[in-house]
Design goal:
The protein has 214 residues and is α+β, with helices and mostly antiparallel strands. It is 53% helix and 17% strand. It is built from six helices and eight strands; from the N terminus they run ααβαααββββββαβ. It has a four-stranded antiparallel beta sheet, with helices on both faces. A four-stranded mixed beta sheet has the order 7-6-5-8, covered by helices on one side. Strand 6 and strand 7 form a beta hairpin. Helix 1 packs parallel to helix 4, helix 2 packs parallel to helix 5 and helix 3 packs antiparallel against helix 5.
Amino acid sequence: MNRLFRSFSIIVAIFYAIISFIQYHKDLDIIIPFIGQINIIICLFLLIFFILRVVWRWKNYILLKDNDGYVFTRNGWSKLLTNELLPFFIFLPLIVMVNIFSENGLIFSFILALIIIEGIVFLFVGKNHFKIILNEKAIIYFSNHPDIFRWEQIKHIKMSQAGILVLKSNGNKLNIEEESFTNFQEVSTQIKKSAIERFILFEEIGLSTIGQSK
């Protein structure tokens, strides 16, 4: 959901900036019909999607924040911060651009500002609660981009000195880096044990032993 929203919001923001630029430069002789309605529809869709994302990830936060797990190290949290801030480097210049080229850009800019503020607030509120949770049902990667890998969905697990790569049957990946989590050795031991018990293809690369089951 979070990754989908980020891709969607970036595409919408760029599209809105482009049509604002075209509408402002009338000398281009490009007429966009129903520009007012388009502005309203874009803002409405972005706002609805944003509200859905807020409800989804704050609900997950409330459900998962007190669960036992292995929390992120300072280095791991710094990577989450960088990841969360990346879209904002696109949003901020687009906010300026939209307000220069569009008379109706205030609402759109306000929504983008809400996205930025909510992202930063969520990251700092969750700083001491983000973690990886291992239980009988799944590997839960609880962060600003939460993800759940149910054991029955996992096709292959690769373990190396750098960390653990978990592959779903549908091709989705989860990269658990050693430097990002406290007590990483316990994390890797639990995942290895669960993989072998569930007959998941397991591979250790560059380590002292190799375990494999299928």
